[in-house]
Amino acid sequence: MDSPRTLDRVAVPRPPSLLPRVLDVIPRPIVDAVGTALLSVAASAFGFAGLWDLFRVTPSPISPWWALAFALPGCVLIALRDRIPPLLALPVVAALFAGDAATVGGLGSLVVLLDVLWHAVHRATARARRGVAVALVLVAGGFLVFALLRTSDVRVAMLVTLQIATLLGTDYWWAVAVGRAEEVAALERRRATDAAREAVRDERETMARELHDLVAGHVSAMAIRSEAALSTPPDQTRDRAALRAVRDASLDAHAALRSMIAVLRDGGDAPAPAPRLADVPELVRAAERAGLTVRIADERTTGGRAGTLPALVDQTAARVVREALANGARHAVGAEVRVRLSNGADRLLIRIDSHGGRGASGPALAGSGTGLAVLAECVRALGGEFSAGPEGDGWSVRAELPRGAAP
């Protein structure tokens, strides 16, 4: 247990001071406007005037307090930044600065101009920014021409123009840099959002496919066997066999669901391994319990070319067989199904033909309608071919898979 002395040393966060809390409540344009106005008043109080005497057109110096006549209207435009587009306010504050430079030469109007210019460029489009850049170049050229007319010393005229160009150019460059950085950040956020949305969609598709593969066949078998038992006269032996088949299918579906849930939970065990061609006999027995008559013709060992298949090819081939048998049990109760596996020229050939059978006499068990489509995508992703459709009085599913597809 901690001693009282130890507890005394625990750092307790202090509440923020009054000023940060007030600044968080007041809108930022109001804060900027008030700060600029206070700066202008202080500059006038300390006699900051005559900064641009080269451009002054009045015969004698004017009181520094007259600088507020140019600075304070600009502060009002700063306060209304969110209501008045900065690009519209920029010519107004530029005119105020020109009037101040030609009369008082104060500091406040310059600060207002830099603030409005920054926000105008920061919010502007790329085309508008180019327009502002051209305007700044023209303004700098105008200052140079006016300075040359006011003085015979070219060095003084160049120095003053360079000062103005540096202030405005640095402000412009800073606004463009911040704006581009925010645009890049927003683009990255959109990309991250799109990538996360795509990952979620892919994960949902994967889960839907896995649930379909794991559960659909078992649920179909339960519905078909129970419907078959209900549609015929009572027979104790046949009914008990149907109940056993339903029980086995429900246990298999329960085990499959538990495997999937364990994977979705953190720390869950690995999912049940996907079926392979070696598991086809078990798939056939499950189909026979669902009411199908299945014959297998495994001709892969003809000529001694059975070999070992890549894992993805082996699993996809087993999925083709499982989906075909599940569809047969769902749509053609009592059908005769022939499963043929053979080797082609570097290809594994799969063909499942079903004949006869009947549809369920009760309410049909609705399927997702995407099983064969998803299966076709998996086969073609490995460079194989897939087709399924009616043939004669039955249904045929064919698939060709490259035996050397990368695992």
Give the topology, please.
Elements: H1 4-8, H2 18-25, H3 28-45, H4 68-79, H5 86-103, H6 108-123, H7 126-150, H8 154-230, H9 236-264, H10 280-289, E1 293-298, H11 311-331, E2 336-343, E3 347-355, H12 371-381, E4 385-391, E5 394-402
Parallel strand pairs: 1-2
Antiparallel strand pairs: 2-3, 3-5, 4-5
Helix pairs in contact: 3-4, 3-6, 4-5, 4-6, 5-6, 6-8, 7-8, 8-9, 8-11, 10-11, 11-12
Characterize this entry briefly.
The protein is an alpha+beta fold and 407 residues long. Helix content is 61%, strand content 10%. The radius of gyration is 41 Å and the shape is rod-shaped.
Provide a descriptive summary of the structure in words.
The protein is of the alpha+beta class and 407 residues long. The chain folds into two domains: 18-195, no CATH class; 275-359 and 367-407, Histidine kinase-like ATPase, C-terminal domain (Heat Shock Protein 90). 61% of the residues lie in helices and 10% in strands. It is built from twelve helices and five strands. It has helices at residues 4-8, 18-25, 28-45, 68-79, 86-103, 108-123, 126-150, 154-230, 236-264, 280-289, 311-331, 371-381, and strands spanning 293-298, 336-343, 347-355, 385-391, 394-402. α11 (311-331) links the parallel β1 (293-298) and β2. The protein starts with a helix and ends in a 5-residue tail after the last strand. The mean pLDDT is 80.
